[in-house]
Amino acid sequence: MKKILMVWLGLVVTALLAADNSVPPKPYGAVPSAAQLRWHEDEIISLVHFSTITYADKEWGYGDEPAALFNPTEFDARQIVKSAKDAGVKLLLLVTKHHGGFCLWPSKYNDTYTVRNSPWRGGKGDMVKELVDACRAEGLRVGFYLSPWDRNHKDYGMPEYVTYFHNQLRELLTNYGEIHEVWFDGANGGDGWYGGAKCTRRIEAEKYYQWDKVMAIVRELQPTAVCFGREDIRWVGNENGVAGDPTCWATMNAGGSGRLDLGVRAGAVWMPAEADFPQRNGWFWHPNDHTRSPGDLVGRYFASAGRNAVMNMGIAPDQRGLICEEDAAALRGFGERVRAIFATNLTAGGKITANNTRPGFPASNLLDGNPNTYWASDDDVLTPSVTLDFGKPVTFSVISLREYIQLGHRVDDWALDSWDDGAWKEFAAGTCIGAHRLWRGQPITSSKIRLRITKAAACPALSEWGVYLEPEASRREAGGSLANRIETGMTKTGWKIVSDSCKGESEPVGNAIDGNPHSLWSTHDKAGHHAPPQEVVVDMGEAHELTGFLYLPRQDAHTAANVGRYAYYVSVDGKAWGEPVALGEFGNILANPVQQKVMFTKSVKGRYFKFVALQSAGAPFISVAELGVVATK
Ligand SMILES: [Ca+2]
Ligand SMILES: [Ca+2]
Fold first, then answer.
1. How remote is the CA of residue 156 from the centroid of ligand 2, in Å?
2. 0.85 cut: is pTM over it?
3. Ligand 1 ion local residues (Cβ < 5 A)
4. CATH code of the domain containing 421
5. In a domain? residue 3
């Protein structure tokens, strides 16, 4: 009897397994940590840049901007956080200390250069605390940026500074509750004030800061935080908010090496890309700068969050301590557009079928709005397809795909077909899917669509599929041209080159004043690279009252030859030049090659100008896309 019972029980167990043999696929390759998963879900995050240099009209503080400058009389943390929230920002990264060294909190390790030394709140304020409290009140998560480079600190370059840096990190990660991202900038070492020494200090960034100790502090004090720039999250390689095209794999080689924009297919570690860019041209607020338009921001959303990266849009309070009306309106406009695009998922009511389904992981999981349920195929089926029948003609222009990344990057290639005149017609194809992949195109009307996985390393596991129609007005804004972001200054009719230090062969000197942002003057030819200093003298044909000049660096990814340091002269007769009317550095020109506008301390009359490139940002030659002038008339 006992034996029979055992056999019977065995049969029951076997039958139960057969009825529910929903064995999930095994993970493929590297997978995200819980903290990385949560970071992926944020999609839109935002750095907040605010410091003494907001009052000095600079991008990088030299370190000597007086703390007395810092007096945002209308500072309102809630207004700043609400503006970010309007844009859909989920995590706010506070720049607690930028390269200039000024601390937005009253650090006990610094007696001279923090909010305590400023007039703001009578020296009794803690701006980090006010912003953190506002984030928590508005439901945003919080991250901290702490610059390793410090151009104010007297000990920078020496071991004492590293102790200071570690102490500050410990202080920040101890006193403000749970922090979800810690951000370390890659800009490191160079000239600075350094306690009055005013010199250049170079360090070996990989060794100097003792990163193993830094990471131990982060892991000890904030175990649920991701770390940008070191172990968890990588920079996307530009400050345009544009992830790699066509791929942006979340994986990199062990140790984080690999192409920052494209990632590494089947790389050993999960280290996804964060695509940062400022809402304005500069990261800090400047009186003559302006916001990007909402339509422009939407384009960057598709190019970052829509390519498996996270969009990090920098916002900047003005000198009052508020997000100015212009910027707040653009943030609101951006948020409204994104919400409008994704307001109605046209898959609702559709009938979905797959040509292969793993038991327990049906195709309907793609449409349930739940990121934790997914459709998967059998282990040996690497190229399944899934069809969605709307039951009626539907017009769409945006497709959203999400892989169940808890099981890794499984899909290599995919294609989408519409049902056109009784036959399938491919309208989109791509590679990496990952956390989120968006396709944005011209409207298509079709009664059904099909997703084909055309190549995969392991059986695909996809969690969500969305189909949307972008409002026409929003769609018309797509692809806003570069040209409308470039200030041309005074018209260049009648200008001519008087002399130059290097003609340039394939990219001749005349290209610097031809009004075309895409044509360049580069100082290299068959003989090789011609190192700076390089200069050009231009005759404007008649005298003008000049108030400033414009330098447009090349606008593609090749930024190394952009001009780092410059001198600018003006002359009435093209013979007597005198002292330069402007002499300085284009800060951050390598990572953020936006148009540079340098205003003179007072206007100067002249018919000729001489632009001298004293130093290249990072190449053995220099390049100029355009030179222009700002004149009173
Ligand atoms: Ca789902
Ligand atoms: Ca040009």
1. 40
2. no
3. 365, 368, 370, 373, 463-464
4. 2.60.120.260
5. no
